[in-house]
Each structure stands twice: as C-alpha cells, then as structure tokens.
Amino acid sequence: MPGARADGSIPDAAERGRARSILNRLKRRYPEIRTALDYENPWQLLVATVMSAQTTDENVNRVTPRLFARYPTPWDLAEARQEEVEEIIFSTGFYRQKARSIIELSQDLVARYDGEVPRDLEEMTTLRGVGRKTASVVLAEMWGDPAIAVDTHVKRVANRLGLTSSDDPTKIEFDLRALFPKKEWAGISMRVIQFGRDVCDARRPLCGECELFEFCIWPGRYDRAGRVPPSS
Ligand code: SF4
Fold first, then answer.
1. Residue 225 Cα, ligand 1 centroid: separation in angstroms?
2. Which residue among 221, 222, 223, 227 has the greatest number of ligand 1 atoms within 8 angstroms of its CB, and so is best to mutate?
3. At residue 165, does pLDDT exceed 80?
4. Which pTM value belongs to this model?
C-alpha cells in the first residue's frame, strides 16, 4: 500500500507507474551507483558526508586520509582541538563550521552510542550537525536501508520531472517516498544527484539529449532542446 505525500494525498497507479518509468531510465543510465567518498566504516562515512557540503567529494577525499590518520576513532576526534581539525580540513571550505560539526557529532556518538553510528534516521539526526539529508546518505550508502536524501540536485530534478511541487526538502522526501516502492528508496538519491550533475544542470540542462524529456514539465525544456512546444 503506497504511503501519503507530504500534503496527505495518495499517488494513484498512473502516477506511480510514471515514477517507475523515470527510475527505470535512470537505472539504465546508472546501473550501479555509489558515493565517490572514500570511507572504511559508518563513522568515517558520516564525517565525510558532513564535510562534503558545498564542495566536491574529491576535495573531501583529499583531506580524509590525514584526518583519519590523526584521529582514527570517534573518541580521538571527540577530544580534538578544533584549530587543529580546521587546519587539516581547511581546503574543503566552511572549515570552522565543519570542524565543529564533526567534533560535536563524534562527542555525541561517544557519549550516547558508545561510538557506534545508530542505524536509524531519527536517532542519527539527534547527533549535532547531522540532518536528514546526511543521515539518509549514510543509511542508503552504508547499509542499503530505505532512505531518500534530498539535496539541491534532487530538489531541482524532482520538481522539473513533476515528482513533487515542493521546495521543502522534508516534504520532497515524503513526496518521493509515496511515489516509489520502499525497496527502491536507497537507489534513488544517488542516481538523481548524478543525473542532475551530468544532464539536468541548474543553469545549462542538456534537454536536447535528455532521456527524461517526455516526463519533464519544466517550461524551459523546449528552448534548451531546440524543439517547438505542441500548440495548445
Ligand atoms: S528535459 Fe531538460 S530540464 Fe527536463 S529533466 Fe531533462 S535535462 Fe532536466
């Protein structure tokens, strides 16, 4: 039984079928997809995901070897001097805020979870500096658990494809949950994010070569594809 969208409505069979067709095409484009972040355990993935805000995964991968060599466990990072962490992660940007977040989330993990990342969305989001997006990335990537992370790419692409009409990340998450079977949730975000990077760019979407053109409701798609809209 499908769940409800953020506004309480239930998608009908046609809407769910349309969503499935979109996902099938994305699966064809990206049969296997994983995060590009390097990590060896859930805590490292959580820390790396927090640091990936506003920068590329490659930039994060450049600093994490030194970070995790200096602080191999949550206990080590929980006791770190913030200035020292800032110096290591400086090149990822927003380094003060990120250093504070990864120290504080490690302190919370040590104090309340014996250093283990809880495998639960609501519990993970009680850690300081960890929001639904970060927690969903970790759950889906680490364990393949049903979770949908909504970032700026998911927000844009889902709206252009008519999968949601909301701007609010949590509402978008619930709209997508309602449209797709639970067993597919873990594989949605990474594919949509990569599609947003590769094809459906914010400013220069490649509508002319987009395999989802027929599903797209974004008015600018015809100009970008050089096509003439059907007369209404
Ligand atoms: S047609 Fe253009 S705007 Fe629509 S989903 Fe494809 S790339 Fe994005």
1. 9
2. 221
3. yes
4. 0.94
Is the predicted pLDDT of residue 157 greater than 70, yes or no? yes
Q: What is the CATH number of domain 42-131?
A: 1.10.340.30
| C-beta of residue 77 within 8 angstroms of C-beta of residue 51 | no
Taking the centre of ligand 1 as the mean of its atom positions, its distance from the CA of residue 224, in whole angstroms, is 9
Percentages helix, strand, coil for the chain (3-state, rounded to 5) are: 60, 0, 40
Residue range(s) of every CATH 1.10.1670.10 domain in the chain: 13-32+148-219
pLDDT tens profile 16-63: 999 999 999 999 999 999 999 999 999 999 999 999 999 999 999 999
Mutual orientation of helices 57-70 and 82-89 as an angle, nearest 10°?
140
Determine the distance separating the centroid of ligand 1 and the alpha carbon of 170, expressed in angstroms.
23
Nearest CA to ligand 1 atom 2: 207
